[in-house]
Design a protein that fits this description.
heterodimer; A: 0% strand; elongated; B: Rossmann fold; 14 strands; globular; iron-sulfur (chain B); heme binding (chain B); metal-binding (chain B); oxygen transport (chain B); 2Fe-2S (chain B)
Amino acid sequence: MTSAPSGPGSTDRGLTPADLYDVRFTRASMLHPGYVESEVDRVVHRAAEELARHAAEKAQLRERVRTLEAQLDGAPAHEPPSEQAVRILASAQQTADNYVAEAEQFSRQVTGEARAEYEEAVRLARENAGAIIQAAQEAAARLTGPAPDGPAQGGHGVAELEEQVAYLKAFGQACRTQLRAYLEALLSDVENEWGRAHPGALPAPARPPAQRAAPEDDADRPTAFEENTAAEGRTGNDAGTGVPAASGTRPS
Amino acid sequence: MDIPAMRANFAKAAATGDEAPLYFYAHLFLSHPETRQMFPVSMAHQRDRFFTALGDVVTRVDDLDALVPILRQLGRDHLKFGVLPAHYPAAGASLLATLEHFDPEWTPELAKSWAEAYDVVATVMIQGAEEAAGQPAWWDADVVGHERRSLDVAVLRIRPQVRYDYLAGQSLSLETELRPRLWRYYSPANAPRPDGLIELHVKARDGGPVSSALVRSIGVGDVLRLGPPLGHLTTGEDSDRDLLLVAGGMGLAPLKAMVDQVARQGPPRRVDLFAGFRTEDQIYDRADLEQLAGEHPWLTVTFAVSDDAASSLAHGEVAEVVRRAGPWSSREVRVAGPEPMVTATVAALREDGVPEHRMSSEVFAPSRPGPSVDGEVTE
């Protein structure tokens, strides 16, 4: 016999199916064909022991399952949460809600301010552009205007004026280009600022929102820029029946 | 079922303001922790909504004929939140616990009435959800295009991963994983296309968590979750009357979808689209619309600006501009936009002789997360 069942130390870890598969009995002598009887006996004995052990363990477990099940049936299926637990969770939720609301308020304020600045910058730039173009046009008019008064100056004067007109046109063009570049730079600057206003893009040690949101009434400002713009989402409204008569109508 | 007693009892809970819903949700989450993940981090808006709706529904349980279709739709719509039939009894138990907690005169009869009423409602909602069993609970859609059109407006192109059926003019709810459990409604700006692409117009609202994420953080390759479509604004395919479409701001989207619908499926009809904005810069979809008007002889597009002296476009509120271009009394009229604009336009057209039944409208307001008991998408 060559395998585990007779090996030292194999007895205390019990008999595994693999042990049984691996059993190799020693061939008996020529006179007695078959396996050595004592070895076979030993293995069979141990298998029997093992089976008995399993049976006992199974009975024990079955018993345990039964008692646990009995306990489960006795207990209410779902114990309602205690008043205290409900109160604690409710106030925790409320605290969390307040933080979220504060963060949203902060973001609203920052984006609102950014938008106001953006619109102001665009408006100023537009006014500037209008003023410069107008000044250029006036200058051009002054130069070309008197020309008819002085025909006596002859071809020389006309050529000179034409040259000046061309110069002014070029100057106007240059102004336009400059202004466009300026406006675009402003726009991209504002866009950048805007991007930074995104809470996710804020540097970590942002000022606490509570302080920012404090006393000035800035929170109201953004609304001024929302007029006549619809935003995300919508409300359903059956106009067929539901829309009230409006005061917004005017004759013609 | 003693409905007057139930109403009196519910009034007691409602009178506590925020306390009753706070108690309800805390109770629900403690007894069934797995339900917490169906709700957003901040429950502030959710509280008014869900608890009020629940109470409304249950006290109106005597008018089942009116309630049933709404409840079915509601049950179907709740699938996208991951609601299972097993969750209904859980919410019911917490509702009863809440009502009991805030009513010193709670009786076993009252408990029985509420339990019965809730059971009816839950059964109908579960049926509604089961009728939609052939459909997915929600649809994943890939963002395949994202275009910033102005400082705060983006046009998104999304492609649902499986077929998504809707009608031009309807809206759909969507969720992004950047803002979990916050569902918002948007209108596709195109009729259903063979390739399934959907165009969405999104304006970032100051402090709006979903809209600003959609405009500034979402990009090509991200995935959005869509709920089933809903809404009543349609082209009226049974009519071949010419259409007058009046849009204010982002209300343009569903009306552009209608133009697309007429272009794709007809019936052939004249379409006049008016789009009002505050300033010329804000006309975020101008190139597209002008191209459409160039391609289709039956379409005109008129822009109106209300606050832009330098613009060469038509000046004034879009209601006035539309009116000046009338008369429109023979048209089917569709109006979409912010509330004052919709009210003014509908009133002006009514005064000009457009019959009520040929006008329908949709108000666009910021961030409305869900349909109310009345089946409308409301604030």
